[in-house]
Amino acid sequence: MRKQSTVAALALGAILAVCSHQANASSHREAPFITKNPKVDGTDFYMFRSYETGREGFVTLIANYLPLQDAYGGPNYFALDPEALYEIHIDNNADAVEDITFQFRFSNALANNGAGITLNIGPDGGKPIAVPQLNLGPLDGGPGQALNVAETYGVKVVRGPRRGSEGAALTHGSDTSFTKPTDYIGSKTFPGGYGNYANQYKYSNVTVPGCTTAGSRVFVGQRKEPFVVNLGTIFDLVNAPPGVITDIGSRGLLNASNPLANKNITTIALEVPIACLTAAGSTDPVIGAWSTASVRQARVINPTATYATPAKEGGAWAQVSRLGHPLINEVIIGLKDKDKWNSSEPKDDATNFLDYVTNPSLPVILEALFGSASVVAPTLYPRADLVAVFLTGVPGVTKPTTANAKPSEQLRINTTLGTPRALAAQNPLGAAQCFPNSRLGSATTNRDAGGGTTTVQPSAAGCDPTGFPNGRRPIDDVVDISLTVAMGYLLDSSVAPNSGVVFHDAMAQESITFDSAFPYLTNPTGGTP
After folding, report:
1. In the list 19, 252, 462, 514, which could disulfide-bond 433, CB 3.0-4.6 Å?
2. Over the stretch 108-139, which tens digit does the pLDDT of each residue have?
3. What beta strand segments (E) does 385-461 contain?
4. Rounded distance between C-alpha atoms, residue 475 and residue 400, angstroms
């Protein structure tokens, strides 16, 4: 075990070092062009059966944007882009084309009819001077607040192709407008506690047009960054005592700080009944989903910029961010195609990106760097095991039942597999127990040299089949799972010498860092305690 763990630590260091100039976490700053557009940078996408008590018949969809937010990011903080289109897409018939799309558009209105909050400065009543701050007093969500910018948004559902239809508005009561809570400026701004303030904007009993089951929920707002990865130690040549980082028993116990621990992101969270997402009349419980962000094709900078019009934007929507499975653009797609990936659609994946999956470069790079430490890339090509995990779904788990399913990269979930649940705080590996001696969440224990036949074993001790890659919960340690699969865990040892190795970064996703109720991600870090 010692030798295998050393291999895991070295390989992890290599894989992250190769990607470090592009990725700061699951999908933060993952492609050259998106680094110029942080407001539309999708960071993580989650899809899971809700494990809040009484909500088992719902699926929660979470799309995070705008990475690496510092809590002290004033005076403007982190409003989303009113000129952008944020979307969550559902494919429920496995043809790699969206069947349902939820569209989010934002409006950031300056107070005082666009003049902003002013103070009279000077003698004789003074002159009205616009203030630079986002607020001039405490905020509690009530009327009469001294808030300079009100952030609101609307949500539409489009059935069929995402373009060419106006869609229908989601409502709460008779209202189509939702409010995004102001970011966590600090404790003095929110004397009643930020949680109490933000909770006012968790909308329940939302009506989704075309959905006959009631009780959908929506929340958009700043949350604490949920992703955990041991970046500093790994980047510094795995700078930790070998007896710690190479010992699987020390996972989560390494005395190292998570560099993302004090960062925030902006969450778009939507909870919808399962019956509203699966195809009408179909018995297939598997659905696929992904998130995107788009901007207008043309942008002309206003040489005399105003708050409302710093630029003129127009033309068709152009997609600039895409996210399904975590880490795809970071560790599979080549640098020259990262921006192409972000602008692409799942229906074209088999044409544009199949070689990256069937003939992945990173295992070979790892062998070249650390072959002397027994890191050996799988020798079986094409990698049918990775095709199953990323493009077609794992048989018996997330593979659609239709024979006409089209290979495409989507996060897939079997909506009937297992009872939805979070991981217990005392057992943060939870989903890992579906495999003896592994951390592969809800994947399978049956291996096959061709990467073909795999079936989930929910009866395995401690197994939780409701975790990644059967959807993705915030708690799922996708770094460990993805690295282990990439190095051939689902293959036989005759073609994947490292198939018995569990790869880990010594840091664990802890269930105690997440809420047990919608929207599951916790309150953000404030500018002052």
Report:
1. 462
2. 999 999 999 999 999 998 999 999 999 999 99
3. 411-414
4. 25
Are the C-beta atoms of 396 and 490 separated by less than 8 Å?
A: no
What is the Cα–Cα distance from 498 to 439, expressed in whole angstroms? 15
Q: With CA atoms as reference, report the closest residue to 194 among 417, 451, 487, 524.
A: 524
| C-alpha to C-alpha distances, 66 to 20, 34, 194, 259, 518, nearest whole angstrom | 18, 10, 20, 16, 20
User: CA–CA separation, 75 vs 185, rounded Å?
Assistant: 9
Q: Which two three-digit tokens encode residue 226?
A: 């949920």
DSSP string, 99-162: SEEEEEEEEEEETTTTT--EEEESSTT-EEEE-SSSBSS---SSTT--BSEEEEEEEEEEESSS
- CB count in 10 Å sphere of residue 75: 11
Q: What are the sequence ranges of the domains in the chain?
A: 2-513
Full DSSP string of 85-117: EEEEEEESSSSSS-SEEEEEEEEEEETTTTT--
444 beta partners = none
DSSP annotation of 13 reads H
Q: pLDDT by residue (tens digit) across 1-46? A: 334 444 443 333 433 333 333 444 455 655 566 778 899 999 999 9
